[in-house]
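Workshop exercise sheet. Pairs work together: one partner reads the sequence aloud, the other fills in the structure field after running the prediction. Swap roles for the next sheet.
Pair: D.N. / O.F.
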Amino acid sequence: MGGPGHLTGTGFQSGCCAGEPDTQRKGEVGGIHVPVLFQAILDGLQVRPGGRYIDATVGGGGHAAGILVASSPDGRLLGLDRDPAAVEAARVRLASYAERVVLVHSSFTRLAEIAHASHFVPADGVLFDLGLSSLQLADPTRGFAFMAEGPLDMRFDPTADGPTAAALVNHLSLEELTALLYRYGEERRARCIAEAIIAARPLHTTKELAAVVERAVGRRGRIHPVTRTFQALRIVVNDELTALEVALPQAVEVLAPGGRLAVISFHSLEDRIVKRFLRRESRDCICPPEAPVCTCDHRATLRLVTRKPVRPTADEIAANPRARSARLRVGQRLAVSSRELTANG
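Structure field:
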C-alpha cells in the first residue's frame, strides 16, 4: 500500500487511535471508547464551526463527539448506524449536544435518502469508519468475538431479516463455503477449513466454530487462525462490500462543493473498493486505455486529498494496538468537473 498519506502544510496526520486485522476495530483505553485516527479525521474533514456533517457509522459516538466539538457552537451532525445498540450508545455519549445531533437507526445504503429527509444536504463532510466497534466485540451475544462463547449470529442489526453466521456454516455446500472463505476472508486454507466445518456440523456457538478451525489449520503466524473465517462470515452476513459500493456514490451526491469524504477501512477488500472509487471519481475519462477516443462521458466529481492512505503513528498503535491495520482515504467534492473548468478557463 505504500507509506502513510499526508498533506503538506495542513497538519493532516494520524491522531490518536485505530483498528487491527479484521476482527479488531475501534478500541477502548481505560474503558473509554477511543475512535480510530481521531485527529486525522478532524483534519481530513476540515471540520469548521457551523458545518453540517454525516457520520455514516456513528458507533459509540467517538468521532461524532470530536466533530461536534470542532464544529461548535452551531455545527450539526447526522449519525447513522445499522446497529440499534450503537445508536443508543451514541445517544448517551452525545446527549450534551442533543440539539445539534440527529441519530437514525439505518444502514448507510440509505444515506442520501436520510440526509435529504433530515435536511443535511448539502453536507460539508461524510465519514465512514468501517467494521466492528469495541462495543460489538465486547458483547458475546452478538457472535463477533471468537474468544468468548456466544451464538453464531454476526448481524450488525439483530432486528433485521437475513441469514446468521450459523445458517451459513450449517447449510452451505462444501464448494460454497470454500468460496466464501477464500473470497471474503482471503483464506488460503479455505477448503481445509470448509471440510472441517462440514464434518463437525451442526455448529451453534462461536467457540465451537473457533475450535474446529483451529484444529484444522493449527496456530502459526501473527494473526489468529480463526480471524479470517470470522471476517468472511461477517462480511457475507451483513453484505458489507455491496453496501459500501452502494453508499459511496450517495456520499458524493450529498456533499457540498468543497465538502470532504473520509473513509477508514481495515482490510484489503474494503480498502480496494474505496481506493478504486476515489480514483474513478477523480478522473474525467474512465474509458479503457485502448479506446481511441473518449465515449464514457464521465466527469470527475472528486479531488484526491490522500494519494496514499493515512496510517496510524507508532504512538497511536502503542496506545491502541487495534490501530495497526486502519487506513484512511479522503476525497474532496469538486464544484464543477475538471473538464468544465478547463473549458471555462
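Discussion prompt: Confidence is low (pLDDT under 50) at residues 1-31, 337-345. What would you look at next?
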